[in-house]
Write a structure and sequence with these properties.
5 strands, 5-stranded mixed β-sheet, about 170 residues, Cytidine Deaminase, domain 2, alpha+beta
Length: about 170
């Protein structure tokens, strides 16, 4: 019997899943890791800014309380997205992200239910400007979806961000 070894993409997406377990959002547990030259150079999860109270500490989701649908009015959320935190954490450590790949795993908070962990428009813009090459995301069907940043920028040059075919929320 021959042992089947998981791929690097499965390996890194599994690590992003574990990072997401630190999330403090009532709605989603999302983890992101950034890899460059086959090394993890940064991680991030959905959570309140450092030294502030999270939704878990408050005991409720502000956006739920205000009846804001998923994918809307992010400025009213207490949390910083996992992708943003991974980029910020690299900056805090003085680590370049140029040429790296980001892995994003998401699940419904408190459930064993994988979601399409596609970045929102704000995160997509940050990811493009950070100089990453690929984004590998978990999907609701238990697989993964890979995006090449060149395709995003080409698509946005020809259309617009609102025409983006893989939108979160």
């Amino acid at each position: 019997m021959k042992k089947k070894r998981i791929s690097k993409d499965e390996y890194y997406l599994g690590i992003a899943e574990e990072v997401g377990r630190r999330s403090t959002c009532w709605r989603r547990s999302i983890g992101a890791i950034i890899i460059r030259d086959d090394q993890i150079i940064s991680t991030g999860y959905v959570g309140a800014p450092r030294k502030t109270k999270s939704s878990l500490e408050h005991g409720f989701c502000l956006r739920d309380k205000l009846k804001i649908p998923h994918g809307q009015r992010y400025e009213l959320c207490r949390s910083v997205h996992a992708e943003q935190n991974a980029i910020i954490n690299a900056a805090r450590a003085g680590v370049s992200l140029l040429g790296g790949d980001m892995y994003i795993y998401g699940s419904a908070f408190g459930k064993n239910e994988t979601i399409d962990a596609f970045p929102c428009f704000i995160c997509k813009k940050m990811i493009i400007n950070a100089g990453l090459n690929r984004i590998i995301c978990s999907t609701a069907d238990g697989k993964m979806k890979m995006f090449h940043l060149n395709d995003w920028t080409k698509d946005w040059q020809e259309n617009d961000i609102l025409d983006d075919s893989h939108q979160y929320g």
